[in-house]
């Protein structure tokens, strides 16, 4: 088999069975070939025809789902999602096999019931942003899927769907509120989850779109319509699309962990020293404890200096809603509301808490995504290497347990990207020679902040000078790694077989890295 | 040349020079061949690149506009629109010739300056919903365009753009409020026009999209975004995109004309007698005097009987906003706000005054448009014939002076379509043997209401029975025609040459009728 090496030094085959030809990753913004976006053939929908189907099974039958086709789900119902299990159960009953599952991501709890369908051949291929829980562990250990899993970023998924690299036959969209023509939104209903950014591409490009709701309202749906009737084929009413208690447990909690607070204080110093925290700046951070603490410290600084940010983006938390309502940011741009406060805010703050599709958020190949407008973004990591590559998908034992999310997208787009991680996690050093899996290429990571020091990517001498000027102590990343290893020792590396179980695509569709099955 | 006859009895050539193969109109909902929707190739937009261009000329140059390409405008700025003239002036200066102009429609005043560019060959082809003013007169008289004008309904235009029958190279979109990435809306700014339903298809499918604004605001635009940054290539700031006094002169005025009031009273009786005016019914009427009076009378009936309508659609007037705010209708679905009150209401009533694209409004070939959900719609006419065909495009002298608008779309979709017209206009009878130009096929017109009587389409025996039961006096359409002709005499018919100057497409792309140049 021919091999090639990508710009991160990863050796890749030129072709992978169950995937096709490999385009190696070259650089953050490469001149990809021009592809045309093709949407499915038109429908002729006469007046008086009903889209309502009496059951999920009837809707599946109407969609003419066949062996080998691709279906999709989105993960806005998070840990409380009933829909994939409800649908897969009916598909299995119909005896349909060998499906490709193209989900926006996977959450732990409810989706574990899907393991059965992976094992019995109902599902034989998977495209996702990440996998948490048992499915990831099982794939890493036993590699039971016949095709390697394709991991895509949130922006990369929208791009792949728009340009026909991910061809969805039937999209199942969970709708907390929906009318009989399929106008829907995530804003209202007992299972309201807020922004509905991920399935927008599915709705536009899937051949058949099935809305599944537990809250059918009279036509036309009032208030904001996230996905409209022109895109939906069938509507099914079920008792419950989810468990509201597991979608989001109130507000995301701020950390009280003293290590996180030290880390957050240091990150805030770095942000300020960069000179980017000024009137009209834009910001993205995750929902991790340290990120939320950064927002809190940064908010204090902004108030003190009378600075108003233009927007904060990505997954939106109650802390960002507080910041919006306190006037610290002018606008929130939301693909996924991380908690109940954020979900409610979309309806409460319609003028400045805006929903956006994953394509608007992060697709690198449209006419300009929000991620490319960011001044600064923060991301977490399971591992960081001396080339500033970030792993967020596999753990130190080599198991798949995380996600790409929007981090590679926003890291590429932001003027400054800061990776935040504790130096040691469960006695394992976080800074390594080479990460197990490259998820965000080091080319897009500017600063690494740990509790044992701050390292700046050598590409960013400009930032280095600013930080030194501000009195921030810096370390070379190799020095940081050595110091940490003096405490932990060199960790054992996981041992892999040569069977490819996962392919990590960069947001533009090139291949960043491969994930192999663990040696038994 | 081979000829064929369509279902309305019009004789058509099989092929028309400058147009191509003719698909004859067959019926309201024909099984058209499945066409794939193709959007232009992807763009690679790197962070830090500006979309701002210093002038319209620079934006045109950036778009690489060439001889023979297709450009588009939308008509939401109505009589106060500066943009087409500003753009055409620059195109002419650059010496670009032979363009195809694909506009959503034409209004009178400002667009007459475009006549020059039609005459000097800068523009050689036109696609539009209608033409008012001098351009129509000149085309009918002198046929100065080398290609026949294609007339499309609002829904038909969205369909033609989506399915690649109208391929726009460069779309110019007038934005009353816009940020530097091209997020825009019609809701705010000195030239706010309200809903922005027409250029949505242009924004999605044109190869290059240029936003022209007189109100650039910091990124990201707050409030509702009608067309977002993922679709826009360039942004140009000009002094003024329009004259607010000519966009909409306050509120549309209710008629005091006693004939109109009699007509409106009769229409209201017909609507009520149909049994369709009940809880949750939906409604569309134009902005003509009689239509507004119908809404007023109907509102009284609804209040009296405690009836709340579900939605009113189409162009939205201040009278419909009043009805919404009085709780008579639950929702307004708006492609174009007809007056300043309606334009302001979108921001004032965000939960139940919703903007929709022309495709969502009326495209027959998506997965279900709003037009197909209507219970009743009213339309005006310049002529009505004994087959219930409606003319709204040419006058009795044969001059092009009107538009198709959304009438053929909503007439097809509504459960009951009522044509309203005075029996005589300027001594000319309105009911004729055969309309000069078929715009809305009689198959979709159920009732004709004139000041000299009501006629029901023989296809609708069900309605006939209901009206008789309610004591409404009915006349056969031939009888109505004869009575009117007794007063007016048989009118002279305009004399046409055999040169085709216009093609009237039905909403599905088939050909309903042809417009010929007048004999000189």
UniProtKB/TrEMBL annotation, chains A, B:
<protein>
    <recommendedName>
        <fullName>Citrate lyase alpha chain</fullName>
        <ecNumber>2.8.3.10</ecNumber>
        <ecNumber>4.1.3.6</ecNumber>
    </recommendedName>
</protein>
<dbReference type="GO" id="GO:0008815">
    <property type="term" value="F:citrate (pro-3S)-lyase activity"/>
</dbReference>
<dbReference type="InterPro" id="IPR006472">
    <property type="entry name" value="Citrate_lyase_asu"/>
</dbReference>
<keyword id="KW-0963">Cytoplasm</keyword>
<keyword id="KW-0808">Transferase</keyword>
<dbReference type="GO" id="GO:0005737">
    <property type="term" value="C:cytoplasm"/>
</dbReference>
<dbReference type="Pfam" id="PF04223">
    <property type="entry name" value="CitF"/>
</dbReference>
<dbReference type="GO" id="GO:0009346">
    <property type="term" value="C:ATP-independent citrate lyase complex"/>
</dbReference>
<dbReference type="GO" id="GO:0006084">
    <property type="term" value="P:acetyl-CoA metabolic process"/>
</dbReference>
<keyword id="KW-0456">Lyase</keyword>
<dbReference type="GO" id="GO:0008814">
    <property type="term" value="F:citrate CoA-transferase activity"/>
</dbReference>
<dbReference type="InterPro" id="IPR037171">
    <property type="entry name" value="NagB/RpiA_transferase-like"/>
</dbReference>
């Amino acid at each position: 088999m021919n091999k090639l090496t990508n710009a991160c030094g990863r050796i890749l085959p030129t072709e992978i069975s169950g995937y096709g030809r490999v385009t190696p990753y070259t650089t953050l913004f490469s001149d990809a070939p021009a592809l045309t976006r093709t949407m499915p053939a038109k429908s002729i929908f006469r007046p008086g025809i009903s889209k309502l189907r009496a059951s999920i099974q009837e809707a599946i039958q109407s969609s003419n789902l066949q062996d080998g086709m691709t279906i999709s789900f989105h993960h806005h119902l998070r840990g409380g999602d009933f829909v994939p299990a409800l649908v897969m159960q009916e598909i299995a009953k119909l005896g349909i096999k060998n499906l490709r599952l193209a989900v926006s991501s996977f959450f732990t709890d409810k989706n574990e019931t899907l393991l059965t369908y992976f094992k019995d051949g109902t599902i034989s291929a998977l495209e996702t942003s990440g996998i948490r829980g048992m499915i990831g562990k099982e794939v890493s250990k036993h590699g039971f899927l016949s095709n390697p899993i394709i991991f895509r970023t949130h922006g990369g998924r929208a791009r792949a769907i728009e340009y026909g690299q991910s061809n969805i036959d039937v999209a199942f969209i969970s709708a907390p509120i929906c009318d009989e023509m399929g106008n829907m939104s995530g804003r209202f209903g007992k299972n309201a989850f807020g922004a509905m950014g991920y399935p927008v591409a599915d709705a536009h490009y899937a051949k058949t779109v099935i809305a599944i709701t537990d809250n059918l309202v009279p036509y036309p749906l009032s208030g904001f319509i996230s996905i409209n009737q022109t895109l939906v084929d069938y509507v099914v009413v079920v008792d419950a699309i989810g468990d509201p208690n597991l979608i989001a447990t109130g507000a995301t909690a701020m950390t009280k962990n003293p290590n996180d607070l030290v880390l957050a204080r240091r990150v805030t110093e770095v942000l300020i020293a960069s000179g980017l925290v000024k009137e009209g700046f834009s910001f993205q951070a995750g929902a991790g404890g340290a990120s939320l603490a950064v927002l809190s410290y940064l908010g204090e600084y902004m108030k003190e200096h009378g600075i108003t940010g233009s927007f904060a983006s990505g997954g939106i938390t109650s802390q960002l809603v507080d910041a919006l309502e306190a006037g610290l940011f002018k606008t929130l741009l939301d693909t996924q509301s991380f908690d109940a406060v954020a979900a409610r805010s979309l309806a409460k703050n319609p003028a400045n808490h805006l929903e956006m599709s994953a394509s608007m958020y992060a697709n690198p190949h449209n006419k300009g995504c929000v991620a490319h407008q960011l001044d600064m973004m923060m991301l977490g990591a399971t591992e960081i290497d001396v080339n500033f590559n970030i792993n967020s998908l596999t753990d130190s034992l080599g198991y798949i347990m995380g996600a790409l999310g929007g981090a590679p997208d926003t890291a590429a787009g932001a003027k400054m990207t800061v990776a935040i991680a504790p130096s040691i996690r469960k006695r394992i050093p976080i800074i390594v020679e080479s990460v197990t899996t490259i998820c965000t290429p080091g080319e897009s990571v500017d600063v690494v902040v740990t509790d044992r020091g701050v390292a700046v990517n050598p590409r960013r001498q400009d930032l280095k000078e600013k930080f030194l000027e501000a009195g921030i102590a810096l370390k070379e990343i190799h020095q940081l790694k050595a110091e940490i290893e003096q405490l932990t020792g060199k960790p054992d590396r996981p041992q892999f077989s040569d069977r490819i179980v996962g392919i990590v695509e960069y947001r533009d569709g090139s291949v960043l890295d491969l994930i192999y099955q663990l040696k038994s």
